[in-house]
Design goal:
The protein has 335 residues and is α+β, with helices and mostly antiparallel strands. It is built from eight helices and 15 strands. The strands form three sheets. The protein has an eight-stranded mixed beta sheet with strand order 4-3-5-6-7-8-9-10, with helices on both faces. Strands 12-11-13-15-14 form a five-stranded mixed beta sheet, with helices on both faces. A two-stranded antiparallel sheet has the order 1-2. Helix 2 packs antiparallel against helix 3. It is globular. The structure holds 6-O-phosphono-beta-D-fructofuranose and manganese (II) ion (MN). 6-O-phosphono-beta-D-fructofuranose (F6P) binds next to loops. InterPro entries: FBPase_C_dom, FBPase_class-1, FBPase_N, FBPtase. This is Fructose-1,6-bisphosphatase class 1. Its cofactor is Mg(2+).
């Protein structure tokens, strides 16, 4: 089999579709390189003394794991000096990180969740890195948080790395979704799946069912119907999976279909859902739509949401088109 590297893929995409200018290619390659380094640290586990929690909390009030902080540092350091970025923002940092003055500045903004699936870090279950790329607004001189607050539809690239039995990089630049596998011996990303497509129909769903008593009526209705199985209104049995790493759950859905949900609920009405719009929902929604799926906040398309804050949370329903459309219609009917 002829092996196509990430670099070759990016160069050929630019030649054919003009969708990946040189600076964006550099950015994607640098992020890919940082993900290899993170994969290496994750893989060392206890031997690298990288497991466990720190005493610090992140801006969300969550305890930071050592690997959260290590992954954040790896991404910052890798992306600072190349001249392709104006600023970065991370789930693990309260404020944006402008490129230091000693380096040239580029025209892109990079947003990331350095290590997604925190509860799985110390127990050797799949985790990942999620990233999203925006263009800096025209005429921007000193980047501020406001420059990042663009709807997800403006993303020029998004992707994730999955640190599982294999390390994978899934990428979209707005022309379909492709998957690369890390060749650990060669240290290179090799194209292994072209044009991933999410089946429109599915019999599998993913939700943290321990929150059931807190769910709003449309989610109760939808999940109730799925659980009723072959004797219920859907007339068929559904299966459930919940890894508690969004990257791993979304990757399964990209491959074999399914619907992933993290709704807002009554547990803490001050929080509109658990997942973050900029670091998790937007990049995943871009990838899912590019693979023929659908992504909403229950009522509207995630990619159309105008962000108000960097660390904003949002309800998420994404995956196979028919199911996301159905659960969204239940929310729309309820208003
Ligand atoms: O980053 C948030 C996250 O860890 C996601 O990766 C995952 O889907 C979700 O939270 C897990 O939530 P819970 O702890 O409720 O299962
Ligand atoms: Mn996360």
């Amino acid at each position: 089999m002829k092996r196509i590297s990430l670099t070759q893929y990016l160069v050929e995409e630019q030649r054919q579709h003009h969708s990946i200018p040189a600076e964006l290619r550099l950015l994607i390659e640098v992020v890919g390189r940082a993900c290899k380094t993170i994969s290496h640290s994750v893989g060392k586990g206890a031997l690298g003394e990288v497991l466990g929690a720190l005493e610090s909390e992140n801006v969300q009030g969550e305890v930071q794991k050592k690997l959260d902080v290590i992954s954040n540092e790896i991404l910052l350091e890798a992306n600072e000096w190349g001249g392709h970025l104006a600023a970065m923002a991370s789930e693990e940092m309260e404020d944006i990180h402008p490129i230091p003055n000693r380096y040239p500045k580029g025209e892109y903004l990079l947003v990331f969740d350095p290590l997604d699936g925190s509860s799985n870090i110390d127990v050797n279950v799949s985790i990942g890195t999620i990233f999203s790329v925006l263009k800096a607004p025209e005429g921007m001189t000193e980047p501020t948080e406001k420059d990042f607050l663009q709807p997800g539809a403006k993303q020029v690239a998004a992707g994730y790395a999955l640190y599982g039995p294999q390390t994978l990089l899934v990428l979209t630049t707005g022309n379909g979704v492709n998957c690369f596998t890390l060749d650990r011996e060669m240290g290179s990303w090799v194209l292994t799946q072209r044009n991933m497509q999410i089946p429109a129909k599915t019999k599998e769903f993913a939700i943290n069912a321990s929150n059931q008593r807190h769910w709003h009526a449309p989610v109760q209705r939808y999940i109730g119907e799925l659980l009723a199985g072959s004797t219920g209104p859907r007339g068929t049995d559904f299966n459930m999976r919940w890894i508690a790493s969004m990257v791993a759950d979304v990757h399964r859905i990209l491959n074999r279909g399914g619907v992933f949900m993290y709704p807002a609920d009554n547990k803490d009405p001050s929080k509109p859902g658990r997942l973050r719009l900029m670091y998790e929902a937007n990049p995943m929604a871009f990838i899912v739509e590019q693979a023929g799926g659908m992504a909403t906040d229950g009522k509207k398309r995630i990619l159309d949401i105008q962000p108000e804050k960097l660390h904003q949370r949002v309800p998420v329903f994404l995956g196979s088109r028919d199911e996301v459309a159905l659960v969204t219609s239940y929310h729309q009917e309820a208003v």
